[in-house]
Description:
Layout: H1 2-19, E1 29-31, E2 34-38, E3 46-53, H2 56-61, H3 66-82, E4 90-93, E5 98-104
Parallel strand pairs: 2-4
Antiparallel strand pairs: 1-2, 3-5, 4-5
Amino acid sequence: xxxxxxxxxxxxxxxxxxxxxxxxxxxxxxxxxxxxxxxxxxxxxxxxxxxxxxxxxxxxxxxxxxxxxxxxxxxxxxxxxxxxxxxxxxxxxxxxxxxxxxxxxx
Length: 106
């Protein structure tokens, strides 16, 4: 009886372990040629090059969608990139209010 219970527990444990695996692949959207990761992060190694925030007026108004907030941050980062301040490959954000700009390592 003890062996049967032990075998059942091992079987249940192994099934639980295989079903709790994270799904690590996704198709990521691009805005103006830059990857945008919302509430996730890339698997590829990267370095943080800069941070960017939405404007104060946007945060105070509070009526913009996260899509609009992210577009605003990407556009702000692209303007800085054109000025030669840095280069970035993607934007990573958790909330749409602030984000990090990253450069993938080769």
